[in-house]
What does this fold into?
Amino acid sequence: MINKKLFECSTEEVAEKLLGMNLVHETPEGKTVGKIVEVEAYLFDDPASHSFRGKTKRNEAMFENAGIAYVYFIYGNYFCFNVVTNKAGVGEAVLIRALEPIEGKELMRKRRNKSDDMELCSGPAKLVQAFGITREHNKADLLSGKLRLEESTKENFTIVRKKRVGLSQGKSKLLRFYIKNNKFISRV
DNA sequence: CTATTGATTGAT
DNA sequence: TCAATCAATAGG
It folds into this structure.
């Protein structure tokens, strides 16, 4: 099980540390595992963050303790999954944007209705669908439980830091992190 | 109250 | 490049 200490540093540092870790989900249908290859940080003083204008019913998970999930509905169709960071009362989180499928690929293909491995988890709403994550997982504890983070055998890799994707505000901040040369990152 | 927009995706 | 589709938010 992941150590709570992981979250005892800045959100940007946590974002980098999440790269290379595994996301695991055990469901009655089966188990899925994926390596985190792309993330974005959302900070409390960041116009692009849902938490920028204070706590609301939607974003209240962001203001709770680090290490829980923040799941929200977007564009009338999709869900996105975040790992909450920083102390309770400070609204910050890391958006998981892409995973490299490791285990349970058949189940992912079934849930996504796609056969191509590249299409299973290469985007924030895609991986949510592939892993069977729903509204019910909002505020779920990610250190233990069915949906959780796990250390993986980290190979060496280079972290690339770029501008975030799909925003109308806060576009200049370099808060998107991904593993260099990994094939499974989202489209840009 | 109504209008607009969005941390996206899949089809054209 | 564009429509789908709805909740949060901005505007009156």
